[in-house]
Known about the structure:
Layout: E1 3-7, E2 10-14, H1 28-46, H2 61-76, H3 81-105, H4 119-133, H5 136-151, H6 155-185, H7 187-202, H8 205-216, H9 220-245, H10 248-256, H11 261-272, H12 274-294, H13 303-312, H14 316-341, H15 343-349, H16 352-378, H17 380-383, H18 390-409, H19 411-435, H20 438-453, H21 455-471, H22 474-504, H23 506-521, H24 524-535, H25 539-563, H26 567-575, H27 580-591, H28 593-613, H29 621-631, H30 636-665
Antiparallel strand pairs: 1-2
Amino acid sequence: MAVVMEKPGTTETAEPPAPVKHERKVGRGMLVAGILVGWLVLFAVLRGKQTLTLAAADLTDLHRWFNDANDSIGANRNSNPLFLYFFNEIRLVVDNLVTFFQGLISQPAAGRPLPQIGWLGVVGIAGYVSWAVGNWRVALLAVAGFTFMGLQGLWQESMDTLALTVSAVLVALLFAIPLGVWAGLSDRFNRIVTPFLDFMQTMPTFVYLAPLTLFFLIGGASATIATVIYAAPPAIRITAHAIRSVPETTAEAADSLGATSRQSLLKVLLPMSKRTVVMGVNQSIMAALAMVTIAALIDAPGLGKTVVQALQSLDVGTAFNAGLAIVIMAIVLDRVTTAASAREETARHSSGRLVAWRRPLLAAGGVVTAVLVYLSHTYVWAAEFPGEGTIGSSIARAADTATTWAQDHLSGLTNAFRDGITNGLLNPFQALLTDSPWWLVGAVLVALGTVLGGRGAGVTAAACVGLLVGTGMWSDSMTTLASTLVATIMVMLLGIGFGVWMGRSLLVDRVLRPSLDAAQVMPPFVYLVPFLALFGATRFTAIVAAVVYAAPVAIKIIADGVRNVAATTVEAATSTGCNTWQIITKVQLPMARSALTLATNQGLIYVLSMVVVGGLVGAGALGYDVVAGFSQGQLYGKGLAAGLAIVLLGVMFDRITQAAARRASA
């Protein structure tokens, strides 16, 4: 009804306001659903067309070009100046470093039938160093761990692995610590180096191996250089973070007292960030150990070689025994470096009497260690580990017996579980990816990247799709993508279930977190062994191993995200009558969506790295292509292209999920 407005001398009728139009925005969830529905409709019409399938023995022009480049490099390796004065020199220096450490603790050296330091000396050094940088409990763990590796009959293999790890970590830290300090002091350098570190940490371990063999040949040098590249980023990142975490007021106080930049760095910044820097060393050691074991694919000596040979021959017992030795070494190295990072705080809480006695006890321990080293250098009984590894044989037999029992009594359950996931989820999803036209899958990936991560993620997805087509590995890439996404779905289900449980209960967190931390210490290879026993050499083995490998990081991220939801928000929801299920689904998970997206990001990257390692146990696709490229010369180019395809998948996953995480937290 019109309203009459009267003014002196006039009468006006005011029109009612126009109705407000509410434009309904289409949410990202609706857009994603629409893209997937459109994909399914077009798949039903176009199935089997333009799939870019490539047979196992077929090569593209790019693969042949890689083969020709490899042959040309091999023919000119000793005449090309770039190799003569650069690559060959690097290889020689690294070879000499590795040979030095091997001659010191694992291989015959200097005309001796045994290494310079025998088992007794190595065990003594391990115990003394662990005590000096940590405490007596860690020292006992180190002594017990190293002794047990000898009792397993794997002393030389273990020492070869340790020699490669120590060589790689020393070289990595030689570059990583200064670069980390630089990145901590300079915002500009930090912005420059961060994308490279992101890229290096996104790449699965497999990918580093093939290109390095092109320049440094197969062997310990390539393995060590690959390990250096893989182990350096954590130390750079954590060192930079440590420097940046020093309070500004502390640095300003040093400046006000007239300290130079060098004095401020050496006397203030580095001492105050020492604990965090040591944690960076810890992460580098763990990364190096993981890479050294996988580098057995390019003929690196050590425990990894034993595991690879056992996996290829489906010898579960031998693989389990060697895998156990890798786990023990990882735990010892992790505990020692973790104790070293906490050493200063521990000393601060120790009584004065203990601190006073520590220095003379360390001196006495140094004398005892020197005696043990002398004995191991002089006498065979102290140099060569006694016994024939009967404990290792018993472990292998027990693992074989357990495998046989599981296959005889649990095969019905395990086969039903495997077939249910494979037929109900993996096969349909793989068919959707591999039987759709390549351009349709590419368009879907670009559209999903744009919707979830924005325009930049969409452009990245488009570039990666185009390059994937160019590698000639499209079909195998889609097979790997299917396994990766199925495994990631399973990881997120576990992550949400256990993460919410941990996030809501401190008791559950205290019980589960140590196991999750220990699980993240183990190198990827180790996860394949038990599931090979349960499920045989199939792609499902790789998927389950990938789930177990990736779940701990996803669970911890989600648990932290749920715990960080404000208690007042949860209390407000409770006061309005919400039950537990409603609080979780309507409050905590929606408010922790950035943590969920970050968990998805990390889960995808971890799963991808494990799925391709599964090429050793029947997973096929890109992982198999890489392994075949190492073992069959004519497939080298195809293996190199498969490695490039893995990188592209990793970059695409990482960019999309990181961009989605940023949008979720905005």
